[in-house]
Amino acid sequence: MERNEANILTLDGMEPEVRIETNALMNGSHAVIRSLIAEGVDTIFGYPGGAIMPVYDAIYDYQDQISHILVRHEQGAGHAAEGFARLSGKVGVCLVTSGPGATNLVTAVADAIIDSTPLVCVVGQVSKHLLGTDAFQETDVIGVTMPITKWNYQITSADEVPEIMAKAFYIAKSGRPGPVLIDITKNAQTEMMSKPFNYTFCHKLLGYHPRLIPKVDQIQKAADVINQAKKPFLVFGHGIKIAGAEKELLELIEKTGIPCASTLLGLSSVPVNHPLYAGWLGMHGNYSTNRLTNECDVLIGIGLRFDDRVTGDVTRYAKQAKVVHIEIDPAEIDKVVKAEAPVVGDAKEALKMLIPLLNVSAHDEWIAQFKALDAEEEACITVPELAPTTEKIKMAEVIRMLSDKTKGEAVIVADVGQHQMVTARYYEFKRNNSFITSGGLGTMGYALPAAFGAKVGDPSREVVAIIGDGCFQMTLQELGTIAQSGLPVKAIILNNNFLGMVRQWQQLFFEKRYSFVELQNPDFITIAKGFGIAGHTCAHRDNLSDSLDAMLSSDKPYLLEVLVEKEENVFPMVPSGACVSEIRLK
Amino acid sequence: MTTYTICVFTENSIGLLNKITIVFTRRRVNIESLTVSETERKGISRFTIVIKEESREKVEKMVRQIRKIVEVLAVFGYLNDEIAFNEIALFKVPTPAGAKRLDIETINKIYKAWVVYWGLDYVVIEKTGSEEDIFDFFNYIKPHGILEFVRSGRVAVSKSAKSLGDYLPEAEWEYYL
Ligand SMILES: Cc1ncc(C[n+]2csc(CCOP(=O)(O)OP(=O)(O)O)c2C)c(N)n1
Questions:
Q1: Do B65 and A147 count as a contact with CB atoms less than 8 A apart?
Q2: Which of A102, A149, A486, A539 shows a CA-CA span of 20 to 30 A to B77?
Q3: Structural domains of chain A, ranges and CATH numbers in brackets
Q4: Ligand 1, residues A415, A499, A506: which to mutate, most atoms within 8 A of Cβ?
Q5: pLDDT recorded at residue B100
Q6: What domains can you pick out in chain B, each with its CATH number?
Q7: Cis amide prior to A572 (ω within 30 degrees)
Q8: Measured between alpha carbons, how far is A280 from B7 in angstroms, rounded to an integer?
Q9: Which pTM value belongs to this model?
Q10: Are the beta carbons of B60 and A334 separated by less than 8 Å?
């Protein structure tokens, strides 16, 4: 009964002071699980251990309401929760033990804060009376995670549980989302609450007021700047996905005729075949988008933070342009690029207000400039990459063929390195919210667990992970998690026997002194088989299509290893220290 | 280098000092002085942080980053002419038998400093004022020898006529006033 009530009450548009009242007396562990259920959580990624055992004991009673997925390493729990959150739009939840359990999770927490991913991580801790004594498996997790969480808190008594959990979920998902870590001492898990379990949803806090609706004068100013532009250029990031503003973004560009480009994390928010979609930005982004960033007269940034991989040398980034910056996090305004017209607010709300104020327009000549540069890139890079004469397969052809076979509608989860950049370049995204990767932190090993989490988050979608041979060996134990779940997660290893991205830099900027970048790899397919996962290796171009078909048609998890050209380089490239218009085609 | 005084109003919770100082350490900014106390509202603390920094822009960025901390209610950055501010210093000065006598009248009347503790062969003198006032007095008293010297760090209030209540969200505050 109480349970149903909870599910209804967690729907969006929550009213103030919504409470779930019970007369049940329970211990802190049960209160944790009841709080999660109240928040509508149906999946937890976790790994047990001494300091969290009472909570694990409580889960045992709620298996019909909440599914717990046992990962193989806590980092995997974190990345799976991230993938889950990014595809489903819900908060990802992790449950781990103290000490090493918590420190193993740290990489994923750092990843989540920089990529604005909502997580609630519940971490066991030694009993209150042992805090600070170097007790067994005691780590100061609050201290360790302070700079990498949106909020963290240590619960030391059972009575605190409902209020703190409500606060945790509110903070994780509101405003600019991020990870929240709750450290809960063992005594708080075992002791009884002094009053019945009541859950009041949190919808505001004293000092934390994320602004969703922008100020009218800021919107007006932005509109004025945009309406006067002769060569406007719109660049968007992850904020579009988080706000669910894809429809509004299309409406804006179609009304104004403004060409747009995406950051790595914004990819798939505008279909690649849209006539106003100019491509992606940054170090390995497109030629036209980088070059013309330094020629536009108005640069409209929406839901992005002007990362240095996007801007290159910031002292020579779009200096000629007036900048309109629409962003939910006020600390991002003027942080990297000075904004003539800053707008603080949610991207969707901002665009809804902005669009009616914008003039209908077209910028054919300006767009022709993009097209001319696109043609250069096409001739110099894309065409040869996609129709190679090399003996070995090239990464680009794998990705483009995958794109064609999945009609550009799969969820692609890319790991970190050359294969990531190639995926972003050659997969032709046609459907919203279809690209997941570790952008800000560049965490090798992200893709396999994140792809699994994404599949859990939306089983109706085809999820394919693209992984380097180096990356795969950082989290390959999660094949065990995938096998145990039976979910048909597909993974492609693009095996070049190198830490390719580092090798590329050593070739280009360190006189080809290949310092510790060559890998002697295991037999990946045998490893997969050991985990009970089917797979095979594709070594020749002639077999590539059949190989992809075999992987895609399987209704089980599948690992496809593709042996690719060992020493290919990703171009275009903005060398580090260069400015965006100095982008190199070779 | 310009001196900035950053006033941070926060909920009174464990670990907050750490969360705030991380913003400075990440940007390699040295904190010149730091004082924390409860405000006229129960449960609300006030941090007064003094830094020296060349770039105003950097200070503004740090202010915005501090504002992001969930328990932080308000943050203000001030230049010296925008605030009334002071520090307290304590001087432990030896007074052994036969030594040159302290000129209490000058200490009181000229330097506005007061003896707050008489020991057997030393005194403790309290001096309130700006950094310059305190160092003027320091130089005056130095010939007597200084056994110990400590400064409190700056406390400051803004010169604007606004009260804390104009900035902080209203709630059922308990006032000390
Ligand atoms: C955890 C971690 N360690 C090191 C790096 C630095 N790094 C970035 S890309 C890369 C190479 C990745 O190699 P691989 O997975 O084989 O992919 P490739 O570049 O060959 O496609 C390395 C070592 C990183 N991003 N993350």
A1: no
A2: A149
A3: 3-200 (3.40.50.970), 216-369 (3.40.50.1220), 391-564 (3.40.50.970)
A4: A499
A5: 86
A6: 2-83+158-167 (3.30.70.260), 84-151 (3.30.70.1150)
A7: yes
A8: 42
A9: 0.94
A10: yes
